[in-house]
UniProtKB/TrEMBL annotation:
It comes from the Eukaryota. PANTHER family: MARINER MOS1 TRANSPOSASE-LIKE PROTEIN. InterPro entries: RNaseH_sf (IPR036397), Transposase-MT_Hybrid (IPR052709). This is Mos1 transposase HTH domain-containing protein. GO terms for molecular function: nucleic acid binding. Residues 156-167 have a biased composition (Basic residues).
Length: 187
């Protein structure tokens, strides 16, 4: 009859009889009894504090690294981080550029200069087209590498999409007016 009402999620007939017998014997709770065996030694206050200290020292530490340093299981480390310390791992929020107010104002000024220059009828004769590409001598950080442990409710860390390091610019120009540009440059 339970299977007709609850479908596949219903208890089997034998399980129902077993629980009826337990309640007749005086049981009042449906929680499991304590089992024999070794009690948990990983989730003690000492280990919780040690995990917290490691995370505080390096927010990008992985659970595997904590496991290796403390000698406790990976599952216990995850339980300590998520349940005891109420932490989660968040990716850094990436912005196209992180600009200062001065840099923003400089961009506005440059745009205004271009708008004023475009009013000149000879403006297009002074335009030199070109192409430029940058070759970076570093491997950009992946999204996974930027993850940090944060308390729930903590804001994400912000970073620029690319941070420049040593680079080598490669440029090539091509235009009808390049010859004039080169001649004017060397005069």
């Amino acid at each position: 009859m339970l299977e007709m009402v609850y479908g596949e999620s219903a208890m089997k007939r034998r399980t129902v009889y077993k629980w009826v017998d337990r309640f007749k014997e005086g049981r009042e709770s449906v929680d499991d009894d304590a089992r024999a065996g070794r009690s948990s030694t990983s989730r003690v206050d000492e280990n919780i504090q040690r995990v917290y200290d490691l995370v505080k020292a390096d927010r990008r530490i992985t659970t595997r690294m904590i496991t290796e340093k403390l000698g406790i299981s990976n599952g216990s480390v995850q339980t300590i981080l998520k349940e005891d310390l109420n932490m989660r791992k968040l990716c850094t929020k990436i912005f196209p550029k992180v600009l200062t107010d001065e840099q923003k104002q400089r961009r506005v000024d440059c745009c205004n200069d271009y708008i004023e220059s475009a009013q000149d009828p000879n403006f297009l004769e002074r335009v030199i087209t070109g192409d430029e590409s940058w070759i970076y001598e570093y491997d950009p950080e992946t999204k996974r590498q930027s993850e940090e442990w944060k308390h729930s409710g903590s804001p994400r860390t912000k970073k620029a999409r690319k941070s420049r390091s040593k680079s080598k610019p490669c440029s090539s120009f091509s235009s009808i007016f390049v010859e004039l540009f080169i001649m004017n440059m060397f005069q």
